[in-house]
Design brief:
The complex is a heterodimer of chains A (480) and B (278). Chain A is α/β, with parallel strands linked by helices and 480 residues long. Chain A contains 17 helices and 15 strands. Chain A starts with 20 loop residues before the first helix and ends in an 11-residue tail after the last helix. Classes of the chains: A alpha/beta (480), B alpha/beta (278). At the A-B interface, strand 5 and helix 12 of A face helix 1, strand 8, strand 15, helix 8 and helix 9 of B.
Chain lengths: 480, 278
């Protein structure tokens, strides 16, 4: 068949057009514009439609990638979106924030000689196309089972789990502590990387499936898990509260004014829209010189938000070298393009005070890489006498999070790890407490949207099984 | 939406709301707080649950008009609604039968000390209460406080009502004349709590304070409310809001409370201008 001949395919992937760096670094509009229909078809036509598609194995939720790409090539965009939704309830989100380069795209056969198919871009295209066409299809649901499931947390794990359970005919209620559903998708990931309207539409889709979403409801305070299971008459619970509590450096001066955890800085900017202050009530310090400490995606997000709030300089401070940064390459690239200055092999020692309780500088020390540590990465060690000071008026430690004990420490019978995360079976999300499942960051610690989504899906299946058989096997959780 | 069932104007600057929030009322305990957001553009602010009525399904809060949000809030009336009300948050007060206790409430701090005094009284303690404010018109809930106290002392800074003194004066006298005080509870402006703690430290009486730091999510997620207690950083929203007052670094608390002074001014001016236009 002629269409399978490689010569007819463009070798190069179709790049997604995006706002120029100088321009976008001063606004909150989304950075990439998305494909046009022509671009999407052309990119889709690069796919070899492998008989044994490796890409699919790289996807934590096993989306039928070749099938949806084939539909795009045939111009059947809406059907392509539905195809993805068979396995992934949040395609518009995942098309934007999944690390495709280490998942599906890393296994694409085209990547061996050239560039892999832009699977993420195509996923985003069809999801957006479906929304814009206004043809949101609600899949057929199984007959009502009469079973009730409480999902705690409305981030990616909770939404995915709720969607699957609703499709199976169960009655699902999501309890969310904040005033808006979406979890990290709403409070954490910035507008320019994931427009909030996209998240709102994904949540609307979940609601259309019949899921009830209760905001302003802090489980652990308003109701305990046991109350949900007894008085609330829920047959099972799925805990997906995320990781939550921000880590700090623990160095002198860290409680000075102008020092934010990345969680706080991003929550103010994203959830509370403080970049629109005073039209919106929540303020945020607009630093002229900002230090962001860390090398993950959240650090890149915080640095890029600081730029957009008007910072003249944003210093990214990371104690290892760029090669060790956990952030996606694309995020590092975007941040650098926009003007974030990278201070790698640098570690903050203390924050300096302006005499009025505000931060005025950060004293740092240069590091060099020594022997590999337990993570396999070379351990940074300080270079004696290399201290220097960066003048700043805002600092944002983005060092990751730890388990939030608010809910999990108040559930009798729920086993926790030493770090306070929930002990749960990886395949099912089953915990040590009968009827209680858990998934996402509250089990794994900080991870990705798609992994949380995958955990939510696995638990939905396991909850469905549990509701049929009421079988609870905790032998897996032998005391460690 | 959460309806305002009753509004009382306690003084020119202080207002009390009884808000319909049945589930929160059912769970609320002394020492806890809630977060509210007036509308879509509003900020999240923590306010103390000063009272709760499980039959009526309401919680009561008292606030002072300080910034944009509290000024805006004060314009709402009975029957109006608030977009978001979240609670009950924070760790409840540890209530036990200690013996003799003193409850100190200063300014709007009179409101949150009330449910604590009431719970302590119900637990069988002898409760001496001191409430104080700058002037007569800022004193409220005198009868409510009297009803849960074995003895009530009222002070004003300017002597316009009750005794002309700051709250630490009668407190110091009580502790000097009565060696059998097991605990002191103090809620009010940070500066008042600081001096209460200096006073009680002298007499070595354990003192519990409730810290009103700036919060956003108020569930431990952001760390805006961090305070220094015993040399360690704690989150007032989940570790508190009550702490051992003798271990609290009040200077850090006061500095952090001032973080947004200029923004608060800007927001209030912006709000007033917008109101004038409309």
């Amino acid at each position: 068949m002629g269409e399978r001949q490689e010569t007819e395919r463009p070798k190069k992937r179709i790049p997604m057009r995006e706002q120029p760096p100088g321009e976008r670094a001063r606004n909150f509009m989304e950075v990439p514009y998305g494909y046009t229909a022509e671009e999407a078809v052309e990119e889709a036509s690069r796919c070899l439609q492998c008989l044994k598609p490796m890409c699919r194995l790289g996807c934590p939720v096993l989306v039928d990638i070749p099938a949806f790409i084939k539909l795009i090539r045939e111009g059947r965009f809406i059907e392509a979106a539905w195809k993805i939704k068979e396995d992934n309830a949040l395609p518009a989100v995942c098309g934007r924030v999944c690390p495709q380069e280490i998942q599906c795209e890393s296994l694409c056969i085209l990547g061996k000689k050239g560039e892999p198919v832009a699977i993420g871009n195509l996923e985003r295209f069809v999801a957006d196309f479906e929304r814009d066409a206004g043809e949101i299809r609600v899949p057929e649901k199984l007959p009502t089972t009469g079973r009730r499931i409480a999902v705690i947390g409305s981030g990616p794990a909770g939404l995915a789990c709720a969607a699957d359970l609703a499709k199976l005919g169960h009655h699902v209620t999501i309890f969310e502590a904040l005033h808006k559903p979406g979890g990290v998708l709403i409070y954490g990931i910035p507008e320019f990387r994931l427009p909030k309207i996209i998240v709102e539409r994904e949540v609307d889709y979940i609601k259309k499936l019949g899921v009830d979403v209760m905001v302003n409801t802090v489980i652990g305070k308003l109701y305990t898990i046991d109350e949900l299971l007894t008085e609330g008459r829920y047959d099972a619970c799925f805990i997906a509260t995320g990781a939550g509590l921000p880590l700090f450096l623990g160095i002198p001066g860290e409680n000075l004014n102008g020092i934010y955890s990345a969680n706080e800085f991003l929550t103010r900017a994203n959830l509370m829209k403080s970049y629109l202050f005073p039209e919106y009530d929540t303020p945020v310090k607009r630093g002229r010189s900002v230090a962001v400490i860390g090398g993950g995606n959240v650090a890149m997000d915080a640095a890029r938000v600081a730029l957009r709030l008007g910072a003249e300089k944003v210093h990214l401070i990371y104690r290892r070298s760029e090669a060790e940064m956990p952030a996606r390459r694309a995020e590092i690239h975007h941040a650098r393009e926009e003007g974030v200055e990278f201070n790698t092999l640098t570690n903050p020692v203390r924050f300096l005070d302006d005499g009025k309780g505000n931060v005025s500088g950060v004293e740092c020390i240069r590091m060099e890489l020594g022997e590999p540590d337990e993570s396999g990465r070379r351990k940074p060690v300080p270079v004696k006498g290399s201290e220097f000071t960066i003048p700043i008026d805002v600092a944002i430690p983005a060092l990751g999070t730890r388990s939030n004990p608010l809910l999990v420490s108040n559930v009798p019978g729920l086993g926790l790890t030493k770090k306070g995360y929930i002990v749960a079976d990886e395949e099912t999300g089953m915990t040590t407490k009968k009827g209680v499942f858990a998934g996402g960051d509250i089990v794994t610690g900080s991870a990705t949207v798609i992994l949380a989504l995958g955990a939510g899906r696995k638990s939905a299946q396991a909850i469905d099984d549990y509701l049929k058989w009421k079988f609870w096997d905790t032998r897996k959780f032998a005391p460690s | 939406m959460y309806r305002i069932a009753r509004k009382d104007i306690l003084s020119e600057a202080v207002v009390s709301f009884e808000i319909e929030a049945r589930e929160i009322a059912n769970k609320a305990r002394a020492g806890q707080f809630f977060v509210l957001r007036i509308d879509e553009r509003g900020e999240r602010i923590p306010l103390t649950i000063a009272d709760f009525d499980r039959d009526r399904g309401t919680i009561t809060t008292v606030f002072q008009k300080v910034g944009k949000t509290t000024h805006h809030l004060a314009t709402l009336g009975e029957g109006d609604s608030i977009s978001d009300v979240v609670g009950p948050l924070g760790t409840p007060t540890h209530i036990d039968r200690f013996g003799n206790v003193i409850c100190v409430g200063g300014g709007v701090g009179i409101a949150p000390i009330f449910p604590i005094a009431r719970a302590l009284k119900h637990a069988g303690n002898t409760v001496i209460s001191i409430i104080g404010a700058r002037m007569r018109e800022l004193i409220f809930w005198e009868e409510k406080m009297r009803s849960v106290s074995d003895k009530l002392i009222v002070t004003t800074d300017d002597g316009s009502y009750g005794r002309k003194a700051v709250v630490t004066v009668p407190l110091d006298e009580l502790l000097t004349n009565n060696e059998d005080i097991q605990r002191v509870y103090a809620i009010g402006p940070a500066i008042m709590m600081k001096f209460v703690c200096i006073t009680t430290q002298k007499h070595r009486v354990k003192t519990i304070v409730s810290l009103n730091s700036i919060m956003v999510d108020a569930t431990g997620m952001c760390g805006a409310c961090r305070v220094e207690v015993g040399g360690e950083t704690k989150f007032a929203c989940v570790d508190g809001p009550e702490f051992d007052g003798h271990a609290v670094d009040f200077d850090v608390l006061m500095a952090r409370q001032r973080m947004y002074l200029s923004e608060e001014k800007e927001a209030l001016e912006h709000y007033r201008k917008k109101k004038e236009v409309s």
